[in-house]
Write a structure and sequence with these properties.
Distance between the termini: 72 Å
Structural class: mainly alpha
Largest sheet: none
Number of helices: 9
Number of domains: 2
Helix content: 55-70%
Length: about 200
């Protein structure tokens, strides 16, 4: 089924740009336009879940799994660990994607590696959309790219600081699961322990 009007109304997305709107807004725009079963496929793809019955969704899941497997093999090799437990089955094999992963993991910094991997994902979405230029596949490709754009737009210094603070707080609670540190600081003696 073609969605000419919806596809024509979607703005161009370029890797590294701010998203024009949120993925939630994309879903709202699609209500009443996409068939009910296509809305379910859109939601699954946006959440990274696998769903049967759609060529784009199946191909996307297979390529994402191939990418993740390659990253797992790379990390396992660096840690001298067997990667077999981390490998997942997938349909097909994309030689170009294998090269993208190899090139991405050769980058100098974790940031550059992540950017290169997401550029590879972006390219996959574009390639898969070519099979259905005005159909659901193109809408799904836009959704994938929008999620990638949202991810990078959310990586701000303030968001990073919040993550560090949340992690530090969680680790502190793990070290003191019942909150005895605060209790001791108040000057109270904990029964059965030294002050």
């Amino acid at each position: 089924m073609s969605y000419h009007y919806l596809v024509a109304s979607l703005p161009m997305l370029f890797f590294g740009d701010q998203p024009p709107f949120s993925s939630r807004e994309l879903q709202s725009r699609c209500v009443g336009v996409l068939k009910t079963e296509h809305l379910a496929i859109l939601e699954a793809v946006m959440q990274g879940r696998s769903i049967a019955g759609n060529a784009f969704a199946a191909a996307w899941a297979a390529r994402e799994t191939q990418l993740r497997n390659a990253v797992a093999r790379f990390r396992a090799a660096r840690l001298s660990v067997d990667s077999q437990a981390f490998q997942r089955d997938h349909a097909g094999f994309d030689v170009g994607l294998a090269q993208v992963v190899t090139d991405a993991l050769a980058q100098n910094t974790p940031l550059e590696r992540e950017q290169a991997l997401d550029r590879g994902r972006w390219r996959i979405a574009d390639e898969l959309a070519l099979a259905d230029p005005f159909g659901l596949g193109t809408v799904l490709a836009f959704a994938v790219k929008l999620r990638i754009a949202e991810r990078w737009a959310g990586l701000t210094e303030a968001a990073g600081q919040r993550k560090v603070e949340d992690f530090t707080e969680a680790m502190t609670k793990q070290q003191d699961p019942v909150g005895l540190g605060a209790f001791r600081k108040s000057g109270c003696v904990v029964p059965g322990s030294a002050k």
